[in-house]
Amino acid sequence: PAEALAKDGGRGRPPLQRDLQSAVASANLDNLSLDPFALCNNAQIEEGAFGKGYALDRMLARIHSREALIDFGGQLAMRGTYEVSIADPARRDEPVLAFTMSDGSLSTSSGSEKPGHILDPRDGQSLPPRGSVSVIANDALTADILSTALYVLGEDDGLRWANDRGIAAIFIAPNRTIRLSAPARLRVRGVKVLNQEFKLKD
User: Fold this and answer.
1) Cβ(155)–Cβ(130) under 8 Å?
2) How far apart are alpha carbons 76 and 144 in whole angstroms?
3) Residue 115: its pLDDT value, please?
4) Is 59 exposed, middle or buried (0-12, 13-18, 19+ CB in 10 A)?
5) What is the model's pTM?
6) Those residues with Cβ within 8 angstroms of residue 104's Cβ, 6 or more apart along the chain or in another chain
């Protein structure tokens, strides 16, 4: 809470167990109603997991050329066909996977650069670095939301969930394996591993 941060000189602290339990209870979709829009049980909407995607969709809609590419630091939105790359989760300036995609958005979620900034809403705990998850979707908002959600699920559960729901997802694990969901293999072309330390896994 803001009051606790102020008392702690803005340094922050781990939440007390009662505060954590209260936050987990609020992080429940049952607390959200869209028709009419309402929030209950002290629930709030925080845009960290979708704000960038929403902004990219709005920006791309204002560009009227037949081809456009917007790079918004960790997420791309495009109209047309481009070769793109995904970085080593631990070294953002070093690409490890490249491929060609068309018309859509590529969003990557990772906990390596800012450890602990992604929370598991099931228990309120911050997630340790576990590689990265990238999602390709027709719109940037969907890609942004799903890359975060699949990062929370983890590699094995996330890959199963993506395959079951037709989501194009790419998982780069800390053990330097790269796994593509079946929909991702259908959506991208010319896949190239750029760093021999990484292995593409079937």
Assistant:
1) yes
2) 10
3) 65
4) middle
5) 0.83
6) 77, 78, 136, 137, 138, 139, 143
